Structure formats: C-alpha cells, structure tokens
Amino acid sequence: MKLITYKLTKMKILNIRSFKIDKNLRTVIGIGKFDGFHIGHQKIVKEIINLSHQLNCIPCVFTFRDYPFDTTLSLWDEKLEAFRENGIEICLWADFFEIHKLTPQDFLNMMKERCNMAGIVVGENFRFGFRREGDISYLKSWAVSGCVEVRVVKTVIIDNRVVSSSEIKRLIKNSDFFHASLFLGRWFTIEGSFIKGRGIGKTIGFPTINIDVRNKNSPLQNGVYACTVIYKGELFKAVAFYGSSPTFKSPLSLEIHIIEDKSIVVDEDEIFSIIPVKKIREIKRFSNVEDLANQIRMDVKEAMEILNSFNFDKILSSA
C-alpha cells in the first residue's frame, strides 16, 4: 500500500528546539512516534496533507529521533524517507530525554510558539506530556483557546485487531508475518549488506551469505525461516538462520542459504532485503556437523514446500 507522492521541495529536518517558523507562515503538524510507518500512520499523514491543503499551510510532523523502545520496526533514515515520499515538507524532531519532562501545556505551548500551528493531526489513542498526562480532551480544550483545528484520525481495525506498532511487533515475535505485513501496508523485511563469514556452511554443502543487519533491534525472534530474498531487483527462494549459533558459539547473525540453482555475484555496497515467510523451527545445538547438515537438508525441503505455494508476484509488486 502506497500513498500519493506530492512533488514538493526537499524536506527539512530540524530539531524542535532550534526551529522557529517565519511569522508569516503557518503549519499543520502531525504528532507521533511513527515507528514502522504502518497503515494507521499513513492515514495520519494523508490527513496532514489534506488539512494543510485546505488551510494553505505547510505539512509537518513532529516525532522522536531517539525513543527508549525495546525493539523498533524502522530506523531513523527509513522514517524520514517515508515522510519525504508522502509529502511532508518539514520533519521536526527531538530525542525523548530532551523533552520528556514537559507538561502537556508546556509541550503544546512550545509547539505553538515554534510552529505557528493552524492544525494538529493525531491518532485517537494519542497521549503526550510528562507521564503521558495529556490526552485528546486536553488537546482539544487547549486548541480552542489557540484557534488551532484538531483532526483525530480513527484507529484502523483489521480482523478485530487494533493496528499499532506494538501489535505489529507482537505479530512479528509470534511469526505471524501475514498480519504484520497487512498492518504495515508492505512486506515485513529485514535489510542488510554482505559481510564475510567463516565459510562453515560451504564445507557442509550449504553455502550461506552472511548479512550485517541494519536494524539491530528488530522484533524478529531467533529461528530458522523460509524466506524470499530480493537482491539487485531479482527474487530468490532461501532459508534464513537468525540468531546466535549454539553449535559454533557464534554471536547474533543472519545467514541466508539460496535454495535454487542460481548464482549471486555479491557486491558489498548492495542491500539484501530478506522477507520471512514462515518460521520452520527454533535454533538448537547439534553435537556434530553431520547432524547439522541433515537438519539443514530437512529445513531446505520444508522451505521449498512452503515457498512453492507462495505468491511471489505480490512481493515483486510491493518491492
């Protein structure tokens, strides 16, 4: 699922404390963490664009660059790219600990002073200020006195589940990649570049490509997965190992074994996109390499059965 891309000037990225808009300009600003930029976030951004057009204002967002999540769905540069692609002209940010002690009133007054807001767009579960004391009712009451229009975007519900970043993380942890991707509006993907490994897989007949994962705090759990890999615009069927190997006592890693008779010329500057389709098994320790090789052989067979029934056209069309 993609939003309409508006042909605007290059998006400005500024810390809220160093920003003050020209007094002759006004903004419509969406406020949120936007982790994962899921379909609920996409609705908020659409509403920011719509309201900014109606009020002849600059479409903006305020978000956190650094927030104390245990796991994250998107990196900072990915979040910025999503804003940029979907028409946001100014991204204002703060690190969580810069402003986390501001009261709801102090936070809103800061935003008003620096952004000259004509409108605010938020989700219906929006909370803000120290200890999350501010809510929608508080926001609307404050907005009346400041002549600021408030638009509250309704929560998206799919299959009786609330679409939220925390729910998507839970789905990924439980290997429900179908619903996670449905909620994201795109395939859940792990990205990274090639790094040189120890070559153990090749010695037992299953050569692997070692990936330096970009998002070190992904909610993906340790395990062996049937997956698809997109590399240089081409799609491959693969088995992925994600986690720390108890057999070889290796640190956290992502290794992919291409299970088709296709050769890949690896370029260290190119990005691999790994799309988990289904978890095959948990990671376990093997007493010898023969047992490991036999298990991988079974993993490959199971992965092929899973992937042969998978709709690859959907992946290529959303890549």
From TrEMBL:
Keywords, ordered alphabetically: ATP-binding, FAD, Flavoprotein, FMN, Kinase, Multifunctional enzyme, Nucleotide-binding, Nucleotidyltransferase, Transferase
Highest rank taxon of the organism: Bacteria
One family name in Pfam for this protein: Flavokinase
Biological pathway: Cofactor biosynthesis; FMN biosynthesis; FMN from riboflavin (ATP route): step 1/1; Cofactor biosynthesis; FAD biosynthesis; FAD from FMN: step 1/1
Residue stretches making up the Riboflavin kinase domain: 183-308
Transmembrane stretches, start-end: none
Single GO BP term: FAD biosynthetic process
GO molecular function: ATP binding; FMN adenylyltransferase activity; riboflavin kinase activity
InterPro entries: FAD_synthase, Riboflavin_kinase, Riboflavin_kinase_bac, Riboflavin_kinase_bac/euk, Riboflavin_kinase_dom_sf, Rossmann-like_a/b/a_fold
Enzyme Commission no: 2.7.1.26, 2.7.7.2
Gene3D superfamilies: HUPs, Riboflavin kinase-like
Catalytic activity of the protein: FMN + ATP + H(+) = FAD + diphosphate; riboflavin + ATP = FMN + ADP + H(+)
Similarity remark: Belongs to the ribF family.
Name of the protein this chain belongs to: Riboflavin biosynthesis protein
UniProt source species: candidate division TA06 bacterium ADurb.Bin131
Gene name linked to the record: ribF
